[in-house]
Amino acid sequence: MTASADQSSWIRRVLGVDLPSAVAAGVAAETIRAGLMRAASAVVLPQDNAALPDALTPLAPAFLAALMDAPETSAEPLGVGAAVPVQDQMADVAGQLDFLGRKLDEWSAALDDAEGAKGWIDGAGAAADADDRATTLASYNESRERGLSLQAEIAAMSEKIRAACNGVSASIGRGA
Amino acid sequence: MAGDADLARTLCLRQPGSTYRFALRFFPELELRMTRTRGTPTQGDAGDAAFAGVAIVDDAGKFVFCAPGEPRRLLWGLSEWAKSAADRLPAAAALIGSGAAPWEGGTLLDPARLAIRRDDALWSGVANPGPEQTARVLSGCAPGDRLWYWLTDEPGASGLPVLLQPARDDPNRDFLNALIDVVALGEPGPAETGIAYATVDGEIQFLGAGLRRAHLDALAAWVGDEAGRHPELGRIAGARLLRTTAGRVQAAIEDATVWDGVARPAPTGG
After folding, report:
1. Across the beta sheet with B99-102, what order do the strands follow?
2. 0.90 exceeded by the pTM?
3. CB pair distance less than 8 Å for B247 and A73
4. What is the ipTM of this complex?
5. B78 — phi, psi (to 5°)?
6. In chain B, which residues have their Cβ closer than 8 Å to the Cβ of A13?
7. CB pairs under 8 A between A and B
């Protein structure tokens, strides 16, 4: 999976959006929930996982409105096979996206570290002390390994987010 | 407090490019006020505030506070306010990583041309993960209240397998992320994150696609170690980890025997 700077930036601020002004004016909880369902129904998931955040952007205002002003409050124990409340599923997606954004930042930092080390080895490091070169090479390898590990983690998280989104769509479809 | 609720909403609902008037007072007590502005922000009346000016939100969602005076002192004041407020107002964590820039008033300049000072070290102590913090969250948690969770079976040096934070108070997860940043210093293993809540029976249900038996064991071992000193942690006893797929519960991971010896306090509210 690749992620542009724009996407990474979007993920960091995905939940930092304005509520519709009507929410602050004290709209009924049912209206807020209905707004969330409408927004969720309008989401079309893209084929490319890297484009998932952009596709989910329109959900954020309605989601935040619901979380703050019309939160899910059901408290029944859920058994195997039970449907998870849709708002909880959406909260899961939002939480996963937030977590993914943090991983993307880590990944980006690991890539920067690796690039920096490689640049030094290929450039100024050519004339440097052998010990310094060995230390920088070890740092490069460590950053590269970390980057690859994070890349795999990010890909797996993206799949999880997609599956969770599919669950939300299915739940809305069956009126859960 | 209505003021706190308004400020929490202001902090949680920031977006890049938003602008606010702010006033930071040191006396008689540390107090931060922020009001969303529309259009071109201008400096308001400082009154008796130590600092008063305009705050903007940068592209990364971080605040930059612009005011006359020494920016280091402004940052220090903001970080001290965040530390003092975070227990009652988790949204204060939204200030972590904020910048400050000298600004002599008038009309706000292009943010790109501001001389912004930041100091990550100042924010240490806003979020203090530990059994006390988790116990405090649990003590105020009524059945049905949604909690963000972070859960790992490899806690690392912090020893903490779980972090909890009320979702309604922290919709952006600013405070949860601040807690995670602290435990991350101890290099924990991979973690799961999602939503949890107490049922009418007082049992905590964790929902998530990646939950495993090892998470339950780690949670139970930690609660067993800590509940003597922090009885509210006993509310986790009997927790059910619900592995979900496509919006349904696929498996329930539970085991009464792992909670032997841990007393569960009576549920809160309802």
Report:
1. B31-37, B19-25, B51-57, B63-67, B99-102
2. no
3. no
4. 0.86
5. -65, -40
6. 15-16, 59-61
7. 134
